[in-house]
Design brief:
Blueprint lengths: L1 H57 L4 H33 L4 H62 L1 E2 L3 E5 L3 E3 L4 E7 L12 E6 L6 E4 L6 E4 L5 E3 L1 E7 L2 E5 L4 E4 L7 E4 L3 E3 L5 E7 L9 E5 L2 E3 L2 E5 L4 E4 L3 E5 L4 E4 L4 E4 L4 E3 L8 E3 L2 E7 L7 E5 L10 E7 L6 E5 L2 E5 L9 E6 L3 E5 L1
Parallel strand pairs: 1-10, 3-11, 13-21, 22-24
Antiparallel strand pairs: 2-4, 4-7, 5-6, 5-9, 8-11, 9-10, 12-14, 14-17, 15-16, 15-19, 18-21, 19-20, 23-30, 24-29, 25-28, 25-30, 26-27, 26-29
Helix pairs in contact: 1-2, 1-3, 2-3
Length: 443
C-alpha cells in the first residue's frame, strides 16, 4: 500500500524538477536577447546624439533650429535612459522568476520611443530650417532698408553742406592802395550764373585786416563792397555767395596797402633806337626817388631785384622794348615807374651815302637811326618837310649822335638846318626824332 503511494510522489517530484530545469533554460535564453536589444537601443541613442551634435555645429547661424535639435536629442537621450532602466528592470524580474515576455515588451516599447524621438528630430529640423531662412531674409531686407536710409541721409547732408566754386572771381578795384583809402572789392561773374540770379543772392564778404571786417548783403548791391586799411601790407578777402540755397566759395586776389609814399622817380635811357649789331647793350637808369625818413629803397626790373641801373642785351630786332620797373621802400610801399621804350634794329635802319640833296632820305615820324657813310661838312644836318605831308610846313624834332645825351633841335618852318654836337665822320650813327615825316641829309 505504501509502495503504491510512493511511486506517484516520486513521479511528482521528478516532474517538478524537470519543470524547474525548463524554466531555468528559458530564463537563460531570454536574458541574452534582452541585452542585445538594449545594446541596439544604446547604439541608436548614441547615433541620435551624434547626429544632433553634428547638426547643431553645422547650423550655428540658425539658432532656433539648433536649439530644437538639442531639445530633441535630450528627449532621445532620456528615452534611451528610460529604455535602459526598463530593460534592467525586466532582467531583474526575469531573474526573480517573472516571464521573459515582459522583457520583450519593454524592449519593444523602448525601440518605439527611440523611433518617435528620431522622428521628432527630423520633424524639428525640417520645420526649423524654413523659419531660419525667413528670419535671415527678413534681417537681410531690414539691413538693406537701413543701409538705403543711411545712404539717403548722407546724400542729403552732403548736398546741404557742399560748397561749389567756378562761377566767378573776386578782385580789388586796384591792386595797390594807400592807408585810409577806400578799397572796393568786386565780384565778377562768369557765364555759369545768370545776372538775374544775383538779384536774390546773398553775399557774405570777409575783409582781412579791413574795416569793416565783414559785410552781408542779400541783393545785387552785394556785388561790390568797400573796406579801409589802417596799416601797410598785403591783405586778402573772401566771398561766400548763396544762390538758390547753393553755396559758392569765391577766391579773391589780394590788395597791397602802401605805407610811406615814394615820389619823384624818373626812368631814362640814352637811345630811343639802337642797332644791336653795333650796340647790343642798352641801359636804363632811375633817378630822383625819395621816401620817408629812415626808410630804404629797393628796385625791381622785369621781376628781378637790382640797382638803380638796368642793362638789357639784345640779339634780335624789336619794334620797341621797355623794362618794367617797381620801386619799393621798407614800409611796404611800392610804385610802378614807367620807362621809355627802345627800338632795336638789325643793322642801320637808314643810310646816308652822299652829302647834300643827292644823299637825302625820307624819314618817318618818330625815332629813326641813320648810319652815315659820308662825313658831314661842319657837322651840320638838314630836314625839309613836304607840304603834302605837313600842310602847315612846321617841323619839330631833335637830332643827335647815338650814345650821346646831347640833342640839337629841329624846329621851325618847312626847311631846317642845325649843327650837331659831335664829329660827324663816316661811320657815325645819328638818331632823328621827328613829329612829322621829313626828308633829311648832311651837308
Amino acid at each position: 500500500m505504501l509502495k503504491n503511494c510512493a511511486l506517484p510522489k516520486f513521479l511528482g517530484l521528478m516532474s517538478l524538477a524537470m519543470s524547474m530545469t525548463l524554466i531555468s533554460c528559458d530564463s537563460d535564453d531570454v536574458n541574452p536577447s534582452a541585452s542585445k536589444d538594449s545594446q541596439e537601443e544604446d547604439a541608436s541613442s548614441s547615433s541620435v546624439k551624434k547626429s544632433s551634435t553634428s547638426k547643431a555645429k553645422s547650423s550655428s547661424s540658425v539658432a532656433k533650429s539648433s536649439s530644437s535639435k538639442k531639445t530633441s536629442s535630450a528627449s532621445t537621450a532620456k528615452s534611451s535612459d528610460s529604455g535602459k532602466q526598463k530593460a534592467s528592470s525586466s532582467s531583474a524580474k526575469d531573474k526573480s522568476g517573472n516571464s521573459s515576455s515582459a522583457t520583450a515588451k519593454s524592449a519593444t516599447s523602448s525601440s518605439a520611443s527611440t523611433a518617435k524621438s528620431s522622428a521628432s528630430v527630423k520633424s524639428s529640423s525640417s520645420v526649423a530650417k524654413p523659419a531660419s531662412s525667413n528670419t535671415a531674409a527678413s534681417s537681410s531686407a531690414k539691413a538693406v532698408s537701413s543701409s538705403a536710409a543711411v545712404s539717403s541721409s548722407s546724400v542729403a547732408m552732403s548736398s546741404a553742406n557742399q560748397v561749389f566754386e567756378g562761377i566767378g572771381t573776386c578782385i580789388p578795384a586796384k591792386a595797390v592802395a594807400e592807408i585810409g583809402e577806400d578799397v572796393t572789392w568786386k565780384f565778377v561773374r562768369n557765364n555759369v550764373v545768370a545776372a538775374a540770379k544775383l538779384l536774390t543772392a546773398t553775399f557774405s564778404w570777409t575783409f582781412e585786416g579791413g574795416s569793416p571786417s565783414y559785410a552781408v548783403v542779400t541783393n545785387a548791391a552785394g556785388v561790390s563792397q568797400t573796406a579801409k586799411y589802417a596799416k601797410s601790407g598785403d591783405y586778402g578777402a573772401s566771398l561766400k555767395l548763396v544762390i538758390d540755397d547753393v553755396s559758392y566759395a569765391i577766391p579773391c586776389s589780394p590788395v597791397h596797402i602802401n605805407g610811406a609814399p615814394i615820389t619823384g622817380c624818373k626812368c631814362s635811357t640814352e637811345n630811343a633806337t639802337v642797332d644791336f649789331t653795333a650796340t647790343p647793350d642798352v641801359a636804363w637808369t632811375v633817378t630822383g626817388c625819395s621816401t620817408g625818413e629812415g626808410l630804404s629803397l629797393a628796385y625791381e626790373w622785369d621781376g628781378s631785384s637790382g640797382t638803380s641801373t638796368f642793362t638789357q642785351t639784345f640779339a634780335a630786332a624789336s619794334d620797341g622794348y621797355a623794362p618794367k620797373l617797381k620801386v619799393s621802400n621798407s614800409d611796404n610801399s611800392v610804385v610802378d615807374v614807367e620807362c621809355p621804350a627802345v627800338k632795336v634794329t638789325e643793322g642801320p635802319e637808314f643810310v646816308i651815302d652822299e652829302p647834300q640833296g643827292t644823299g637825302a632820305i625820307k624819314l618817318p615820324a618818330g625815332t629813326s637811326i641813320v648810319h652815315l657813310n659820308v662825313a658831314a661838312f661842319a657837322n651840320s644836318v638838314f630836314c625839309q618837310v613836304n607840304r603834302n605831308d605837313v600842310p602847315t610846313g612846321v617841323l619839330n624834332g631833335t637830332v643827335g649822335v647815338v650814345g650821346s645825351l646831347n640833342r640839337s633841335a629841329l624846329k621851325g618852318n618847312d626847311y631846317i638846318s642845325t649843327r650837331v654836337d659831335g664829329n660827324l665822320v663816316s661811320g657815325t650813327v645819328l638818331e632823328f626824332t621827328l613829329d612829322s615825316p621829313a626828308t633829311c641829309g648832311v651837308y
